[in-house]
Structures are given as structure tokens and as C-alpha cells.
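Records of this kind hold a single protein each, on a pair of labelled lines. With that in mind, the following record should read easily:
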Amino acid sequence: MLLFAVAFVMVLLGVLLVVLSALREGARVEGGAVVVVGPLPLAFGTSERITRALLVAAIALTALAVLLFLLVNYPWLGR
């Protein structure tokens, strides 16, 4: 339940940052999303720059998830 609350707060903070940024700098807002299907991240966005940034972040997070999975399930790898 705590993890859900933390994730919810992070999403709200992200939305708040986008709204405040749009109000401060004008109405130019870019966005995108990542859908992870199995081990493959699929990224799409409003511009090539956003899509590339999301894809890099998704690959890094996928690699981190695989590393943590291996360390948790095979503790002898971490020694």
C-alpha cells in the first residue's frame, strides 16, 4: 500500500511540474509515454527528442530491473 501511495504522489508531482512549467514559460508542452511489453520498452512522444529521452530512460530502468531481479533471486551474484 505504501508503494502505491508513493507512486501516486510521484505522478501528481509530475503533473504539477508540467502545469507550472506551462504557466511559467507559455503553452509549449511536450509529452510522451513508454509501454513495456515483456522486456521490450516501446516509447512514443510528441517530438523525436522526447521519444529518444523516454527510450533511454526505459532501457536504463529495464536494465536496472533485470539487475535487481538477478541480485534478489541469485544472491551469490552480488558477492
Summary: The chain has two helices and two strands. The radius of gyration is 16 Å. Residues 48-73 form the longest helix (26 residues).
